[in-house]
Amino acid sequence: MADFVQLVVLGLLAGGIYVAVGVGFGLVWGVLNIVNLTHGALVIVGGYITWMLFAGLHLDPFLSLPVDAVALFLLGYTLQRGVINRIIRAPLLFTFLLTFGLNLVIVNTLLLLFGSDFRSVTPAYSGQGLELGTIVIPYVPLTALGVAIMLAVVLGLVLNRTRIGLAINAIASDRDAAQLVGIDLRHLYAMTYGIGAACAGVAGGLIAMIQAITPTAGEPYTLQAFVVVILGGLGRVSATVAGGLLFGLVEAFGQSIPGSGSVFANAIAFGLMVIVLVTRPQGLMGRLR
Amino acid sequence: MIATPDANARWRRMFLILGGILVAYALLAPLTSLEAAQSANVPLLADRLWFRIATYIAMFIVLASAWNIIGGIAGYAAFGNVAFFGIGAYTTGMLIAKAKWPFLAALPLAPVVAAAFAAVVGLPLLRLRGHYFAVASLGVGVAVGELVQNIDYAGQPVFGGATGLFLPIYSIENRGLFFFYLMVLAAALAVAVTWLVLRSRFGYGLIAIRENEEAAAVIGVNTTAYKVAAFTLAAALTGLTGGIFSQWNVFINQDNTFPIEYNVQMILMALLGGTGTVFGPAAGAVLLQLLIQFLGGTLPISFEIPFVSENARPIVAQVILGVLLVVVVLFVPRGVIEFFGGRARFSLAYLRRSLRETSL
Amino acid sequence: MSATAAPQLELRSVTKRFGGVAAVDGVTFEVREGEIVGIIGPNGAGKTTLLNCISGIHRLDGGDIRWRGDSISGMPPHRIARLGIGRTFQIVRPFGSMTVRENAAVGALFGSADARRRPREAFELADHVLELVGLEAKARHPVSALTIPDRKRLEVARAVATRPRLLLLDEVMAGLNNVEIDAALEMVETVHATGVTVLLIEHVMRVIVGVCRRAIVLDFGQVLAEGEPESVLRDERVIQAYLGERYAKRRRTDPGRDGP
């Protein structure tokens, strides 16, 4: 029983990271109709910013998260405005390849800058945790889960309560009609991608505190973000939160199967995704679009 | 913007002649390395390094042409075809290394197992469309690679685990030549299959599915069967090369038989050359593979990249490849071969127009 | 009803729901070999949904559809096409990368099971069909070079090339002007004269009166009236209940004009 509770705790904590990684990816996919293969690379850029600020200026990693968000927003805005906007009307294969190409450029530029060594962010409190009987809840992932939920809440508020959020919702439901009522598509597409990238940056900062990072560590997160968004359902932040937590649980329980490594967790996650896609394409709590 | 017919015909003829000469050279030059040729004082036109590169090129011709069947002709953006390559490689590899089968008996099973796998996963996967299919197939590719590396039975890795699988060296004279021609045969087979498909009812059905699946269904195309058949055919060709690769390379592991970047490379090749065409993917494979080898510094003709140390070179090569990918996708959405194929002429106006068509 | 052989197409209480809404609600009618039958009704009456049910794109939620006496409910679209039921789409769906001739030829390559041909014969048939619909001069053009009326013709040509015994036409006259409608009407009659039964959905009243021997009026997914076009359209109940007051008034002052 304690084992079970511990697994649930670990699963939810891991799920926090997936929520953070998933919300930005889901936003870009839902609004711009782009499966953003650059997402994982953006996540890792955020991770390196947090690491630089920690290693160079001894800044507490949680305090560097806003810096990650701003820096990644600017990078994302520029990428969308300068590059991705130009092929937004092309068939999906092209956005796929384009974002993969950008991913290659970013990852290899990081390799040139930082090499392939593992970098980790270890503040003084990183090893500690809350002990409740036999169950241990480490502080950093717990706070990370809190930050991830906050990120999702803020994103949800921005999308539903602000002018820009309304405009984003408008272009998500009908691009051409949105243009007719005077929305500047180029700017708004770039804003949306920028916000998605900012979320990725925060996710990266959180990831850097939990695991050692290398420039290539981001790629799995792109796939996992996709699974998370599929599980929850496209088009709603709350669905992505549910998808992320569910993915974390599936992974934790998958890894606990005796004799399996992290690999079966991946296989189980992908299997689950295919089953969801085939039987319930709108996701577990999504709306059909 | 349709270019004048005779200008097109001229381009086309020049292109075909040039291509023919290149192919003939590539096929015959290796023969000069035979002992008989050397003792007759024929100059050596191709050394072992060239063989290796040429064999890789032939391999990618198969991969790109096979992808073209499902991705280019049927329009299903498969992103996990590398799974079939790996399955083919491991099928042949296991039969040779563990069951001690002779290579030529083990090879035919590579396409069979890959095709069977494609049929099984294709049935659910091909019900998905667009992004969903692309990423689900990518997921299958990744998952299969990881499973192969990590499946244990009674504490022992079934497929060689993380250390990989070593095959006995195939004993035949002029091994390099043998595998080069074997791979070339596979490439010729892939191109021939594409040619046949495009001229058959099957091919027209696939194109109809690509253009509009529902419209295809109501004129009588069995869309499910056709899609699965195309996927399976692509898998068989891809698995065949995987099988050849395993014995050629002697050593296989997850990294060299399930590399994710192959997925992108084969698509980029088909795109460069022109998707849905017979020779496009092959031409794209030659171009891109030469470029990759050139950037990686493995070609005899090489170059210095300023300010870059020898160690950083493969990384810089990747950056250049990424930039190239971006530029190609931005400016040439219809493939380079189209210019030679005669539908449009390469010009600034063409580039500007394709940008305008796709941008916001 | 005469007691001859089974009707070619027979719908029995066909029902299709989306969410809680019944788009087609217990529709029953039959079509005999060689007829031209029109289905009319306002937007949202369930006309296209009904065609989608017949051609197998939608699965039925209730009722049964019979082809020459045998049930075809639940069959996938391609099998229904092979039985000899061809159709067009209201929003044309040409195969964009192909020429006009290739589009028609693909129809001939597939289609009716007993009329399948090899590629070369398919192209011969395609030429023949293009002549029938009046597109022979544009056979080599890419689809993108066609005007809207020509695209509608191509949609019909592709369906005719499948050699159907029953042709379902989904608003092939919508968006055409009067001259184009006349030409399209002629085309439908030409196709009908080759021995094809026609079931057409229309918005434009003139079409129904012009070519149909029988009209079925659909409203809110149900059959409201059925009979000779003139008498159906003169039916005050039909005019009032769902063609709307405006049309009713206009029709009294200016008979023969198109519908709303």
In short:
By secondary structure, chain A is mainly alpha-helical.
Protein architecture, described:
- The complex is a heterotrimer of chains A (289), B (360) and C (260).
- Chain A has eleven helices and two strands.
- Chain A is mainly α and 289 residues long.
- In chain A, helix 2 crosses helix 9 and helix 3 runs antiparallel to helix 8.
- Chain A is globular, with a radius of gyration of 19 Å.
- Chain A starts with a helix and ends in a 10-residue tail after the last helix.
- The longest helix of chain B has 27 residues.
- Chain B has two domains: 43 residues, no CATH class; 214 residues, no CATH class.
- Chain B is globular, with a radius of gyration of 21 Å.
- Chain B is built from 17 helices and four strands.
- Chain C has a domain of 80 residues.
- The C terminus of chain C is likely disordered.
- Chain C is built from ten helices and ten strands.
- By secondary structure, chain C is an alpha/beta fold.
- In chain C, helix 9 packs across helix 10.
- The two termini of chain C are 33 Å apart.
- Chain C is globular, with a radius of gyration of 18 Å.
- Chains B and C meet through helix 9 and helix 10 of B and helix 2 and helix 3 of C.
